Amino acid sequence: MVRPESRGLPYDRNPLAAAALPAKLRAREDAVARQFGICLLLLWGWGCAGGGGSSAYDAGEPESDGSRRRDSGPSCPDGQHVCGGGCIDDQPNDPARGCRLGCGEPCTAFEGSTASCSPGGTCSVECEPPFVPDGSGCTCMPTTCDAAGSACGTTDDGCGGTIDCGMCPEGTNCVDHLCECSPGVGEPNESPTAAISLGEFRDSDDREEIYALYAITSDSDEDWYELTVVDACCLSNPSIHVELSGIPSGSNYDLGLWYDCDSGGGPGTCADGTPDTAMGGGCLSTNSSNMPETVQLDTSCGGINENGTAFIRVRAASWAATCGVYRLTIRVT
Ligand SMILES: [Ca+2]
Ligand SMILES: [Ca+2]
Ligand SMILES: [Ca+2]
Fold first, then answer.
1. Residues with Cβ within 5 Å of ion ligand 1?
2. CA distance 87 to 100
3. How far is the CA of 215 from the centre of ligand 1 (A)?
4. Bridging pattern class, strands 282-285 and 274-276
5. Higher pLDDT residue, 168 or 3?
6. Which region among 37-46, 53-62, 236-245 has the lowest average model confidence (pLDDT)?
7. What spacing in Å lies between the alpha carbon of 178 and ligand 2's midpoint?
8. Residues of the chain with CATH 2.60.120.380
9. Ligand nearest to C-alpha 224
10. Which end of the chain is more exposed for a tag (fewer CB within 10 A), N or C?
11. CA distance from start to end of the chain
12. What is the DSSP letter of 41?
């Protein structure tokens, strides 16, 4: 059993207990004062009932206001206290010695608890996490999946058992207790040099392709594509149109298009989107939420034709941990 002071609030320091007892304490102090007064009226040689001592002040450090603590009874001299029917010297305030007002025996701790000494010189026992007070001691409280930061799988509960944090949604895998998207199609493709090649687009064909295979599978995932653009006809130069749609609800993906002219120069005019100077020039589209993104680059290079390579990037401005594929529509006219 854990005594009342086991909650880290020694009984004589517990504000609730203190609030409940001032009348009793005053009565006891009055009684002590009366006894002390009677003693002064009698010859010292007679002693006092309960005798031997006088003020029973504790040997420990004074309170912050300079006053001295009293021991629990008035029957021992200063620097001593009652123990086993007699008086012994106040002990070092060490839990291994039962604290200053103990009898030299170690304070009793329980499984999941540690013992310490209160400033008043008594043993104090506190439950250490994951152990919590349960009214009769300390009980190990199993952790929760939320507290453990575990979204899936089986997790140590901290008390020698396990807790089941469930399965991941379809399309995701449980990795280190978190649900992650399965590696997406075409990965890794995190840079222009690792871009997925989409082949040749000739402006003479007005070719349009729709890709619904690829997904953003983490907040750091970038998907790069490249296409070879051939200026094969016509009076006007090739125009590259790209649309990103089907962005999962709750996420915000953005789109970028850059063009590298084979003959140098260029790359032309950003007819839709925000001009960007990276990688020789291109267009960005950064609408909010999961609104579709569109860019159009009208090519214009330094040589006799506008042949070149287009690079497209899809990435997440914010990612809602959904693994669904987006739709990429590419047309060269
Ligand atoms: Ca991807
Ligand atoms: Ca990628
Ligand atoms: Ca966006």
1. 184, 221, 223
2. 13
3. 5
4. antiparallel
5. 168
6. 37-46
7. 20
8. 192-332
9. 2
10. N
11. 85
12. H
**Ligand 2: distance of its center to the CA of 179 in Å?**
18
CB-based burial, 30-49: b 16+ in 10 Å, e otherwise = eeeeeeeeebeeeeeeeebe
Tokens describing residue 154:
């089986």
- Residue 40 pLDDT more than 70? no
Place of tokens 């399309």: 171
Nearest-ligand number for the alpha carbon of 273: 3
Instruction: Determine which helix (DSSP H) or strand (DSSP E) holds 26, and give its type and residue range.
Output: helix 22-41
Q: Report the CATH fold assignment for 192-332.
A: Jelly Rolls (2.60.120)
- Is pLDDT of 55 > 70? no
CA of 331 to the centre of ligand 2 (A): 22
Which ligand has the nearest atom to the CA of 256? 3
Quick one: average pLDDT of 31-53?
30
Which residue in the block uniquely carries the two structure tokens 């790069």?
224
Mean pLDDT of all residues belonging to the chain: 82
